[in-house]
Amino acid sequence: MEAIDVIKSSYIRELLAKGVREGSRGMMDFRNIEVKAGVIPHAEGSAQVDLGATKVLAGVKAVLGEPMADTPDQGTLSMSAELLPLASAEYEMGPPSPEAIELARVVDRGIRAGECVDLQSLLLEEGKAWSIFTDIYVLNYDGNLFDASELAAMTALASARLPKYEDGKVVPEEHVQDLKMNNIVTSSTFVKIGSHVLLDMNGHEEMAADARLTVATDGKLVRAMQKGLRGSLKIDEVDSMVETALGKHEGLKGLIERASGRSF
Predict the structure, then answer these.
(1) What is the pLDDT of residues 116-152, one digit of tens each?
(2) How far lies 6's CA from each of 1, 107, 205, in Å?
(3) Where are the alpha helices (DSSP H) in the chain?
(4) Which residues, at least 6 apart from 264, have a Cβ–Cβ distance to it below 8 Å?
(5) Distance CA 127, CA 63 (A)
């Protein structure tokens, strides 16, 4: 860690020792969230999420493909993430970094475990089905890419419309139906700094964090969890995080519904 990073981390810890956090937010408060759908005209679905200064773009593309051999009655869903160099001086061009791979997997796990996309509805006919690709691009980094990306990916999927399929061919200029969704999952990511637990860490707080936990939920069930960093968490801390994530879901879901124009 560079000297300037040590100074920033020490500043965050000093603030927390006084019972406050940078920006004067409550410990369990999100930063301001803005969600906008339809930002990429030629995508089947798209969304940009601004979570404080963190900005994430997600796009959905439907490609004609074949079902997997073990699920011949379903289409497929895949997720990728790219940390663009313009988003942070720490990001570089080249193959996906471990951080980008982790980001895509965490977002994918929540959506997949929540059975959000109706994969059986993607089957067109025997041997042909839609393959849904969701690509996440980090435009600006200031902490908590997980929740921003989950919101962006879910909004892009919720706003997606599938191309027309007729006589064995795709008519890309015509979009005839919404992507069928069965559920909406959102995530809440927490960090532990010393003895303090915070929701929605900014970049300085993430730098100072000892442990991290992302909780993906549909408001009824915890669909996925991902622990990060080397620090440990107590059982009662995890329980509190889960309870908070369940309570935050309805508000986050409302952002997705308003942006996509659909109710779930």
Answers:
(1) 999 999 999 999 999 999 999 999 999 999 999 999 9
(2) 7, 30, 12
(3) 3-17, 98-113, 145-158, 203-208, 235-260
(4) 158, 181, 183, 184, 253, 256, 257
(5) 14
CB 225 within 8 A of CB 216: yes
Q: How buried is 209 (Cβ within 10 angstroms: 0-12 exposed, 13-18 middle, 19+ buried)?
A: buried
pTM of the predicted model as reported, rounded to 2 decimal places = 0.95
Packing angle, helices 98-113 and 145-158, rounded to 10: 50
Share the mean pLDDT of the chain: 95
Least confident segment among 22-26, 102-106, 233-237, 256-260: 22-26
Candidates 3.30.230.70, 3.40.50.980, 3.90.1180.10, 3.40.1380.20; CATH matching 3-260 = 3.30.230.70
CA distance 178 to 157: 9
104: its two tokens: 């895509």
Nearest to 29 by CA among 198, 258, 219: 198
- C-beta atoms surrounding 171 within 10 Å: 12
Domain boundaries, the chain: 3-260
